[in-house]
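Hey, resending since the last one bounced:
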Amino acid sequence: MNKVIKRGAIFFLLFLILLQIPAVNALFTGGTALAAKETPAYYIKVNKQCNTVTVYGKNKKGKYTVPVKAFVCSAGEYTPLGTFKTSSKYTWRALVENTWGQYATRITGSILFHSVPYTKMSPDSLMKGEYDKLGELASHGCIRLSVMDAKWIYDNCESGTLVTIYESEDPGPLGKPEGRKIGDEATWDPTDIWSEGNPFDNYLPRIVGKSVVTVESAEEYYGAEEIKAYSSIGDEITESLVSDGEVLDTPGVYRIAYSITDEFGRENSKIRLVKVTGRP
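The structure tokens again:
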């Protein structure tokens, strides 16, 4: 009798262990054999009217309510409205009229996120004048982006990411980024920091302001500092300027070191000498 009880207890324990295996648990409880797949990290909204892309992340409840990035884009007259799920991705993708796009992500059918088009599958063949159209309707239906922004979606938004394309006068919670201008003759995307030979890699951010300043007091200096910074492609980025040094009221010459790193990792610096004369 004891042997029977022991054998029964062993079988019962084995049964409990088997229930911890999802596939077996499903057979006995009617549940699913696999845990539900986590939803994608981001949700993308494209405002066709404003030519703006806003990327949302999740809040603590898992809802897509946290705006994390905004991109300027070019949609087109035939860009469809609605909600779709991304699928295939391509580092280079053939487009219409014998053109090519970098870092393409399929939204639906023939509609993709991709870079401004190129005349061939080469980063030095950007279609002249097309980059400067970012921010206005210009595509055949796809969503054009700078290389940097197209690659961000390519790298960070997995297949199955929801994309809603809509129209509104409100660009979105992060506003509409300013469209960059590089001129009608440029054949490289200035944000393409991954392609060797990009001439924009030789461009540095600029720190604009006098190298020597004479003031009566520190208050006068900090009240009218008049120094600005611009990225390597001309965007104002003064708010990212970093300074090292301090100006005091004591008469003398003070050294302030300014430095800037733009979004492309390009760096520059400037030394300013501030002469404090003291109040008369």
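Confidence is low (pLDDT under 50) at residues 21-36.

Sorry for the duplicate.
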